[in-house]
Amino acid sequence: MSATIRVRVAERRAEALDICGLDLVAADGSALPAFTAGAHIDVHLPGGLVRQYSLYNAPGETQRYRIAVLRDAASRGGSAAVHEHLQPGTELSIGQPRNLFALDESAPHHLLLAGGIGITPLLSMAERLSAMGECFELHHCTRSPGRTPFLQHMAASPFARHVQHHHDDGAPEQKLDLADTLARAPAGTHLYVCGPTGFMDAVLAAGRSAGWPEERLHREYFAAAPADSSSDGSFEMEIASTGRVVPVSAGQSALAALLAAGLDIPMSCEQGVCGTCLTGVKAGTPEHRDQYLTPEERAANNQFLPCCSRASSARLVLDL
Ligand code: FES
């Protein structure tokens, strides 16, 4: 795992109902590592949880990292820890910025589609595209103006004219017409989507049914849909380099079995969204349960995410 950085909460703001924004600065006052648009950081929270949050400020800013967190009633504790324990002056550790949702800056046009708090990585992209003078549209879908973070921030930004807001409680004519938006996009447009799983699945399905290739459909999930584990069975994993066999019991994740066997597998989100634990598969058939791999990558069956995925064959031979 890469080294962590000690930071301090320099400022905390209410960005919208149940959404707080935090500015993090290096605890020793030094510059933070540079990041690119779409990057996120691991945030080590009080109580031992580690959660990923996208950076929403302009790439190139190294005096602070800006994150925003929705208090999620269904959360596994991460958002509650942020809202309850991170106050101005609180010190904590974060990981180095990583980007699994990078802009393709060679595209002729960019369509940024955000659902709710999924706006954060797309704001950073909008900052970058605006600074580059690129063509783009940013659509932000939320339940209501009161639940829309960064309304003022976007209205006052240099890219305000590129932004359209769509509210569930608003008039029908202001709602996002996905099919029309995709149909109007210039040839070669790249689409970037982040938000709740249902929103993202709808956007990606619309893109695929309109014939957009996967390389122009960029996505970042920030939460996994709850998996049904009631019919999980046991299976085995064989470590290709040693021939050692690691059993996985019905109530155990493949990652937990690998770690218990002493293998050093990098991990972060533990819910199949970040890609950190990606492991090669040389034989056998994974049962993919992640939201990180594309349909083509899943079908190739030569890699899987052991934090959430299992096996549909009796044994997987892992490229370890
Ligand atoms: Fe994030 Fe496995 S740890 S996908």
Model description:
- There is one protein chain.
- By secondary structure, the protein is an alpha/beta fold.
- It has three domains: 5-94, Elongation Factor Tu (Ef-tu), domain 3, CATH 2.40.30; 110-221, Nucleotide-binding domain of ferredoxin-NADP reductase (FNR) module (Rossmann fold, 3-Layer(aba) Sandwich); 235-318, Beta-grasp domain (Ubiquitin-like (UB roll)), CATH 3.10.20.30.
- It is 19% helix and 29% strand.
- The chain contains seven helices and 18 strands.
- The strands form four sheets. The chain has a six-stranded antiparallel β-sheet, with helices on one face.
- A hairpin with a 5-residue loop joins strand 12 and strand 13 (245-248).
- FE2/S2 (inorganic) cluster is lined by residues 267-270, 272-277, 290, 292, 305, 307.
Task: Using the coordinates above, name the CATH class of the largest domain.
Answer: Alpha Beta
- What is the succession of H and E elements? EEEEEHEEHEHEHEHEEEHEEHEEE
Number of strands: 18
- Report the span from N to C terminus: 17 Å
Secondary-structure-derived class: alpha/beta
Please state how the strands of the largest beta sheet are arranged side by side: 4-3-6-1-2-5
Bound compounds: FE2/S2 (inorganic) cluster
Kindly provide the radius of gyration, computed on alpha-carbon positions and rounded to a whole number of angstroms. 20 Å
Oligomer: single chain
Model regions low in confidence, pLDDT < 50 over at least 5 residues? none
CATH architecture of the largest domain: 3-Layer(aba) Sandwich
CATH evolutionary superfamily of the largest domain = Nucleotide-binding domain of ferredoxin-NADP reductase (FNR) module
- The count of helical stretches stands at 7
The percentage helix is 10-25%
Strand content: 25-35%
Shape: globular
Major sheet size, sense and barrel closure: 6 strands, antiparallel
Mean of residue pLDDT values: 93
